[in-house]
Amino acid sequence: MRVFLTGATGFIGSHLIPELLDSGHQILGLTRSDAGARRLEAAGVEPHLGDLDQPETLAIGAAAADAVIHCAFDHDFSNFVENTRKDDRNIAAMGDALEGTDKPILITSGVGLGTPLGGGAAREDVLNPRHANPRIATELAGAALIARRIDVRTIRLPQVHDTTKAGLITPLVAEARRAGAIAYVGEGQARWSAAHVSDVARLYVLALERGEPGARYHASVEEGVTARAIAEAIGTGTGLPVRSIAPDEIERYFGWMTPFATLDMVASNDWTRARLGWEPTGPDLLTDLAAMDHAVPVAA
Assuming Cys at both sites, which of 93, 182, 257, 294 could form a disulfide with 55, CB separation 3.0 to 4.6 Å? Predict the structure, then answer.
């Protein structure tokens, strides 16, 4: 297939490219710069110039392909709500280009959106349209396309990691440096699900090749790693002191990440593995955190 890949020069996209090529697919990769275009060409990808602030450029890419994998998202969390609305607009624009065809579009969300109302591990069959996380806009945009008989498949991501980046943990390290310590709240029992980026990339390809219209897939390998274990791993790597803090100290240590400090983001992957035959093999989160060079600045 000829696949239009947004986020092609990003963390997940750059790992997804070789997986797609090895599976025999051709790639049309979104980039907003000439430098990005040169990188894509060197990787064997045809560049498509466009921008997340110009939905029509994504629609053109979608129309020129047999399938879409939408990994791109503006991760400026200071403008998070507006960026979720931007994602809504981009998904709608690509949906317009796909309407009346059987071409699939894979969109990207987060595992937390599958958390049942009564709590517990997130599941693929759960979608709460009133979820407090603004990222629900992505899944509602997908649902709108499904209602128009467009083949939408949703990949929900946990903390995706290797030895250079680790989801929300990467900005957590920056906040810890600012505060002078890495903290966890109380006993540190809040848990975050996680997966190595290589396993996540393989899941996208499996969902493209074997996935079902309307399905949601969880890219979580570890169901939940405790906040205390994560903090201790970061403390060991950075040399920062590790502290248990009270709830009234959260903002001091977590800054803009305060809403995530006590958030339990555990996720089951049983249904996903059974449906797609996904067998993760990558290192676990704490192994990657132990191998991470925290002296090297990480690009956003």
Answer: 93
